Amino acid sequence: MTRKKSPTRPEAAKTGKGSGSSKAYQLLRSRIVSLEMPPGEDIDEQMLVEELGISRTPLREAMIRLAAEGLISLLPNRGARVASMDIPQLQEHLETFELNQRAVTRLAAMRRTKADLARIEALVAAFEDAHARNDVDGMVDGNWELHLAIGNACGNRVLAKIYANLLTESLRVARLAMSYETFPSEEARQAHLNNILREHREILAAIAAQDADRAEALACSHTGLARKRVTDFISQSAISTVSISPRAAPAALEGVATDV
């Protein structure tokens, strides 16, 4: 995947006291999730300090937060870089994510409240609205919000917290699943998105009916959509920015079950 040249960024306005860390967090998170800052890229702290008009302290606070979410790697005495996305890490992440997604979705079907269900239904509709507008960022963020709401409905705060962190780590995978530039054709992209839309509705219906077995099966299939997209992308692309060789992908992912 070739990194697109970014437009010249306007000089950032000086931030008010207490806002610098939040602003740095949002900026870095957006650039990492959009793949504007590709996996493995060193983070130029001085450039960000100058761009944002903040000191290094709030910037470091933002990077510590992003490191806790799995989006940045902090290197002792060497600064920080965007977390890598190589084959072993993707495989381990997707396996762990599937197990957690199945668990929280199953428990959400068993324990959800009326308020939980209303929130999930509203977010399914919001994702569909973003899709209708061809809003990639809206779909990525909307998908995160939707599954976060399902996690919060599981009735287990420890499990919900673990799932929330995994969801954040998955944001770059979600970008691969929804953006224009990572598909061989618009038809292929729409077919993939249609599967996501359908499964969102089916997961909602299973949670509404409190059908735990159905909800868990759909959660497993839904993770399979992400795995299939990653595998297809690796097979079709020379993604040097993700530190993966296309020839290595099938063997590296062999044995990881897919459900679609």
From TrEMBL:
Residues 18-85 form the HTH gntR-type domain. Keywords: DNA-binding, Transcription, Transcription regulation. PROSITE patterns: HTH_GNTR (PS50949). This is HTH gntR-type domain-containing protein. InterPro entries: GntR_C (IPR011711), TF_FadR/GntR_C (IPR008920), Tscrpt_reg_HTH_GntR (IPR000524), WH-like_DNA-bd_sf (IPR036388), WH_DNA-bd_sf (IPR036390). One of its GO terms (molecular function) is DNA binding. It comes from Bordetella genomosp. 10. It comes from the Bacteria. Residues 1-22 are annotated as: Disordered. The keyword DNA-binding applies. Gene3D superfamilies: GntR ligand-binding domain-like, Winged helix-like DNA-binding domain superfamily/Winged helix DNA-binding domain.
